[in-house]
Every structure is written in C-alpha cells, then in structure tokens.
Amino acid sequence: MQLVFVGPPGAGKGTQSKWLSSFLAIPHLSTGDMLRAAVEQKSDIGKSAQDFIQDGKLVPDDIVMELVDARLDEEDCKNGFLLDGFPRTLEQAKMLDQLLSRRGTPLSLVLELTVDENQLLQRLVDRGRGDDSPETIQNRFHVYRNQTEPLLQYYGEKDLIKSIDGSGSREEVREHIRVAVRQENLEA
Ligand code: B4P
Predict the structure, then answer these.
(1) Dist. CA 141–CA 36, nearest whole Å
(2) I need a surface site. Which of 104, 109, 160, 165 has the fewest CB within 10 A?
(3) In a mutational test of the pocket of ligand 1, which residue from 15, 36, 45, 115 has the highest number of ligand atoms less than 8 Å from its CB?
(4) Does 38 or 188 have the greater pLDDT score?
(5) Residue 65: which pLDDT band, with cuts at 50, 70 and 90?
(6) Catalytic: 36?
(7) CA distances for 158 relative to 5, 8, 107, angstroms
(8) Could you state, in order of their start, the residue ranges of all structural domains in the chain?
(9) Which CATH superfamily is domain 2-27+74-183 in?
(10) Ligand 1 centre distance from Cα of residue 58 (Å)
(11) Interval 69-110: pLDDT, tens
C-alpha cells in the first residue's frame, strides 16, 4: 500500500509515521529526515537545501523529487511505503502521481493530521530544532497555508483524503489513526 501523511509543521507527521510504518510493515520515508541527513553529510543536495530549511521555506521541487525518486527505487519500497511530509506542493503531487502510475502502484490513502496553530507553535517551540525559531515557524505556517493546503482539495477530489484530529496526546492520535486504517482495510 502507498500512503501519504500531510499536515502543518509540528502536526505529528513524523511522530505518528514512525509507529504507523512499523504497524503496517512498510518503510517510513520522511523528506524532512532525508534533507536533514543530506545537510549533515554536506552532500551537494544538502548544501542546496540548507538555507531553505533554515529559513522555513520549501526546498525546490526538483531537489526533493530527486531524493524521493531514488528512494522509491530501493528494494524495501516494492510492497509499499509511507511518505511523511511529501508531497508538499501541487507540483510534487503531480510528479508523484506520474511516478506511481509508471510503477503501476497508485496511492491508497492520504492521511491529514489537523491541529490548531497555537498548539502547533507550542509543540515546535518545545521541540527546539534548528528550524523551530518563532520567526521560522511563522514562515513555515505561511508556506503550509499557501503551498501545501491546496493538496487537500487535490486529493479530496480523488476521494483519497482521511482527516484525523491530531490535537490529543500522542496515544490518542495513534488510536484515531488505527481506527482510520482499519476502516480502510489497510491493516497488515
Ligand atoms: P519536516 O521534517 O517534515 O517537519 P515538520 O513538518 O516540522 O514536523 P512533523 O509534522 O513531522 O512534526 P513532529 O512529528 O516532528 O520538515 C522540515 C523542513 O524540511 C520543511 O520546513 C522544509 O524546509 C523541508 N522539507 C521537508 N519535506 C519537504 C518537501 N516535500 N518539499 C520541500 N521541502 C521539504 O512533531 C513536532 C513536535 O511535536 C515533536 O517535538 C513531537 O514530539 C511533538 N508532538 C508530536 N505529536 C504530539 C502530540 N500528540 N502531543 C504533544 N506533542 C506532540
């Protein structure tokens, strides 16, 4: 099965994806993690991505696509995967559709995590990662509203979206996701 997690910065995509990927026995592919690893390794992709991440902007689509395309070719993705934080723009979503259609494995479901901005801000400030300064967080919210939210309509029209209340504790959110996955008959 091919799943996507979408939601604003700090919604808990990474937190819940770690659990869900092991529950469903599919690999967890986080573009945020991949980009941070590239920055850490000081690779060419990392050098290009660094400033965008630090400013709370999206890394250009072609760079992210290159990473995702290569990762999906790996053996462990043959039976499905969970994409966390990708796609984040309509352009990325369309490129993903083309890529998956070439593979003959269309998306099974898009899970949207919803949390209000005050709570998101608090979670991110508490986390304190390098790109979690108040100014960068505001930029990331702005980018989410303008560039990522249009995906909700795009996937809604394809009848692929399931919205999940992400505002409770980690355990409560996990339960909501478990129920959603069961309703879709996606359990391993
Ligand atoms: P990401 O790494 O995707 O980061 P995120 O949106 O901030 O986090 P996430 O929703 O996963 O929250 P988490 O579980 O960590 O992106 C970072 C940057 O990378 C982007 O700004 C962009 O520059 C770049 N990027 C990534 N993908 C890209 C793409 N496709 N295209 C272009 N650029 C891209 O949770 C946050 C905190 O809340 C954690 O501390 C967690 O412990 C806590 N938390 C989680 N759930 C909680 C709960 N229920 N209750 C209380 N706290 C909770």
Answers:
(1) 19
(2) 104
(3) 15
(4) 38
(5) very high
(6) no
(7) 16, 21, 10
(8) 2-27+74-183
(9) P-loop containing nucleotide triphosphate hydrolases (3.40.50.300)
(10) 13
(11) 999 999 999 999 999 999 999 999 999 999 999 999 999 999
